[in-house]
Amino acid sequence: MRRPRLMYVPFWMTYVFLYTPIVVLVVMSFNSDDSPYTFGGFSLKWYGELASDANVREGLINTLIVAVGSTVLATALGTLLAVGLARHSRSRLLDAISVMPAVLPDLVLGIGLLVFYATIKATLGLYSVVLAHTVFGMAFVTAVVRTRLANSDTSLEEASRDLGATPFTTFFRITLPQLAPGIVAGALLAFTLSIDEFVIASFTAAPLEPTLPIVIYSMVRFGVTPEINALATLLLAVSFTVVIAAQRMTRLTESLS
Amino acid sequence: MARSTVSGAPVKSQARRSRALGRLVFLGPGLTYLIVLLLVPLALLLSYIPFRRGRFGGIVYELTGENFTRLIDPLYLDVVLGSLKIATIATVIALLVGYPTAYLIAQLPRKWKTIALVAIVLPFWTNFLVRIYAWIILLSGPGLVNSTLMDLGLIDKPLELLYNQGTIITGLIYSYLPLMVLPLYAAIEKLDPQLREASANLGARPARTFLSVTLPLTLPGVITGCLFVFVPSFGNFVVPELLGGGRSIMVGNLIRDQFLKARDWPFGATLSLALIAVLIVLLLLQAWSARRA
Amino acid sequence: MLQITGVSRRFGDITALSEVSLEIRQGEFFALLGPSGCGKTTLLRILAGFEAPDEGTVTLDGEDLLRQAAHRRPVNLMFQSYALFPHMTVAKNVAYGLEREKLAGAEIRRRVGEVLEKVGLDTMAGRKPQQLSGGQRQRVALARAIVKRPRLLLLDEPLSALDKKVRAEMQLELKRLQNEVGITFVVVTHDQEEAMSLADRIAVFSEGRVQQVDAPVELYERPRTPFVAGFVGANNLFEGRACSVGLASDGLGVLPGVSTLPDGTPALLAVRPERLRLDGQGVLRGDVVDVSFYGGVSHVSVRVAGRSTPVLVATQGATQVQAGSPVALSWSAGDGVLIPQ
C-alpha cells in the first residue's frame, strides 16, 4: 500500500519537536556569552563553572550512590521475581503487582513512601531514596527479564533437570546465562531511570543530601543559567550512551511496547 | 500395586516440597519487598482519608467525611477539572501527532524502522527536568522561537509564550510523546496489511479503510498510548510549576503542597484518590479493548 | 473479456513478470499455475490494483483497468489468508463491500442473506471469524467477494489452507458457484491437480513468463515446453534429436513418437507413466527397481541401461512384476510427445 503524503507532515514535525530543544541545549552549552539566548562563540567556560560547583558535585555523588545501590537491589530482586512469576506462579494478581510500580503515578508512590517513612519514624537519608528507587527499578527489571524468559526455551531447563541437576544448579548454570542480556538491559534501564528520577526522590531524600535532579530543580527554579546547559549536555551524553548500549544488547524498544 | 503407592507417596511429597521451596526462593524476596515498600505505603496513605489534620499538623483520628466535602469545593474542584482538561488536550494532541508518526514508522524498511524508533525513545531517557528547562530557553522573551518569528517579520515584539496553559500542554506533550508513539507502533505493526488491501478491494476509499479497519483494530494501542500520556500528565506538578509560572496549578501541585507545605496529609491522600481513580478507569478501558480485539 | 498485454514487473534485480500477455474470456474459469515465486501472485495483485506494472496494459471489456484505483475496480479478490476483518461478524464482513456501494439497508440485508445461504453459512451470520473452522472462513471470504457481483473474481490459492477432505468438497462448491453466478474466475495455484480439476483453461507460469495456455486435457497430453512437461503431472522425459518416426536418442536408439519438428532438432520426448506397457514388444529393456502399490494404481520403477533416472510406469490395480525381474517397455507412437528443447 502506498504511504499517504500528508502523513509525512506530523512525522517530521514529531522529530523536529523532539530534537529542537535538545540541539539548542547542546549548542548553548558551548556559548561564550553570558546570555542564555544569543550565541557569542565557542567556549568551555560553563563546563568549568560546573566543575567547580560544589552543589552539583555533591548532588552527582549522591545520585550515583542512589543509582548504583538501587540498581543492584532492583536487578537481584527483579531477576528472581521474573523467574518466579514465569516458572513458579500462574497468578495474575502477582503479575499485576509486579508491574504496578511502573504504571502508578510517581507522585502517588512518592507520597506513599513519605507517609510510610514517617509512620515508622525513619530518618530520611540516601538509603531511603535507594529503597524507593528499587521499587520502580525492580518493576522494569522484572518486565525486561520476563520478555527474555518468554522467548527462551524451557526445554533447556528440562534437559538440565533430566540430566540430574537440582533446581538451583539449573538456575545458575542454565537459566541465568540465558537471561544475561535481559538482566544487563534491565539493570541499565533501572540505572538510567534512577539517575533521572526527581519526583520520588523529592519526597524521600533528606534535605541536606539532595540528589542531582533535586539540585537541578532548584537551579531551574532559581533562574536560567547557562551552567545548566553544560550539565544537561553531559547528562544527555551519558543517557544516550547507555540507551544505545542497551538497545544493542537487547531489542529494548520491542520489550517496552 | 500396593508397593508402588507406598513408595510413590514420599516421591510426590518431595516434588511438592521442592516446588514450594522454588516458589519461596524466587517469589519470596521480590514480593516481600513490594508488599513492604509498595502495598503497605499505599494502604497507609489511603488510611488517612477519613481523618482530619490537627491544628499544628499531625492527624486527629476522628472519623470525618470533610475531606470529600472539600474535594467538591469549587476552589479545589476547579483545579481537578482544570487538570483533567489540560491532560486531555495534551493526550489528544499527542495522539493526533503520534498516530501518523507511528503509522509511517511501521511502513518503513526494516533498517530505518529501528533507527526511527530509537530516535523516538532517546529523548525520553534524558533528564525530565533538563528537557523542561530547554523549553524555558526556547520560549522565553528573547528565546529562539520569538527571535525566529521576529527575524521572519511575523511579529514586532516578543510574544508571551511562557507561563500559560499552552506552555504547560506543550511541556507535557514533549515529555510523554514517546510513550504515545511506542504502543501505537506496536499495534500498527501487528496489523495484517492484507486487511487494508481487502478493504480497498471491497470498494473502500483510504479514509473509510482507516475508520472501519485500521483504527478499530489498533484501538488497544491507542488506549495504551493515551493511558501512558494521560496518567503522568494529570498527576504532574513539575511541568506546571516550571512552565506555568505558578499562575496555574494542577492537582499534582495541590497534592504535593498538602504533604510538603500545608502538612494536611488526610486531604492530600484524598486528592491522590483522583489520580488513582483515573488510573483505574484507564486500565479497565485498556483491558476491555484488549479483550475485544 | 480481460485482456493482458505485455505486462512486465521488476523488483530490483528480480523480474517477477516478463511480457505476459493473456486473454481471459467472459465467464471463464481460468487458472494461473506455477511454482511459488513464478510471478503468478504478482499478476493477481496487479489485477486487483495493489501493484502497478512497469510496462504493459490491462483492459477489462475494453476499459483500461490500470487507470482505476484499487477501490474503484469491478474486481474482487479472495485472499489466500482470507483477510477477514476480525472485529466484524460474518454478516458484517459480507456486508462491508455492499455498504461501500451505498446501497439501501434492506437491499444489503437481502443480498447478504442470499449469499450466505448460497455458501451454506446462513446460521453463522452472527459469529466472528475466529469462531469458525478453516472451511467456513473460506466460504465467508468467498461470499464477501462474490456478493459484490464483480466482473472478475480473483482467487489466491483458494484451497491451500484447507485439509484434504474439505478441499475436495470446496473444489466442487467453487465450480458449482462459478456456474451459478457466471462471473469470470481467475484462480492462482501451485497445485496442478487443483488447477486441472477446476479450470476451463490454464496458463502455466515459470520465472515470470507464460509457458503455455491450454485446456487441462491439452496441457496434459500435449505439453509444449520442457517445463510444462515436467511440472504438470508425472512424465518420463528422454533427450535426443527429432526424426521422422519420433526421437533419435543417443544411448537408447530410436523412440517412437509424433514429430512435427524438422529432423535433427534437439528435442525431448515425453511419455506419461500410464501410457507405458510392461508386456509389449519392448522398445526399451530394463530391470524393475521398485514396485509401489497405491490401491487404484501401482508404480513400477524400471532401470534402463544408458539412462540415469529410472523410467516410471503406472499400471491399473496391483501388478504381477517383482523387484529384480527383467521387463520390456513399449508405447504407441501416438503417446510420445516431442518437445523442442
Describe this protein's structure:
- The complex is a heterotrimer of chains A (257), B (293) and C (341).
- Chain A is mostly helical and 257 residues long.
- Chain A has one domain: Orthogonal Bundle (MetI-like fold), CATH 1.10.3720.10.
- Chain A has 12 helices and no strands.
- In chain A, helix 2 packs across helix 11 and helix 8 (167-196) packs antiparallel against helix 11.
- Mean pLDDT of chain A is 83; it is low at 252-257.
- With 293 residues, chain B is an all-alpha fold.
- Chain B folds into 2 domains: 1-39; 47-292, MetI-like fold.
- Helices cover 77% and strands 1% of the residues of chain B.
- In chain B, helix 5 packs across helix 7 (165-190), helix 7 (165-190) runs antiparallel to helix 10 and helix 12 (251-260) runs antiparallel to helix 13.
- Chain C folds into 2 domains: 2-221, Rossmann fold (3-Layer(aba) Sandwich); 234-340, Nucleic acid-binding proteins (OB fold (Dihydrolipoamide Acetyltransferase, E2P), Beta Barrel).
- By secondary structure, chain C is an alpha+beta fold.
- The longest helix of chain C has 18 residues, at 164-181.
- Chain C has helices at 40-48, 90-100, 105-118, 134-146, 164-181, 192-198, 216-221, 226-231, and strands spanning 2-11, 14-24, 29-33, 55-60, 63-64, 75-78, 152-156, 184-189, 201-206, 209-214, 236-243, 246-249, 253-256, 266-271, 284-293, 297-304, 311-316, 326-329, 337-340.
- Chains A and B meet through helix 1, helix 3, helix 4, helix 5 and helix 6 of A and helix 1, helix 3, helix 4, helix 5 and helix 7 of B.
Question: What would a concise description of this structure say?
Answer:
The complex is a heterotrimer of chains A (257), B (293) and C (341). By secondary structure, chain A is mainly α.
Strand order of the largest sheet of chain B: 1-2
Q: Determine the mean pLDDT of chain B.
A: 84
Count of extended strands of chain A? 0
Radius of gyration of chain B over all CA atoms, rounded = 26 Å
* Count of individual beta strands of chain B: 2
Uncertain stretches of chain A: 252-257
Largest inter-chain contact set:
A-B, 90 and 96 residues
Query: β content of chain B, as a range?
Result: under 5%
Shape descriptor of chain A reads globular
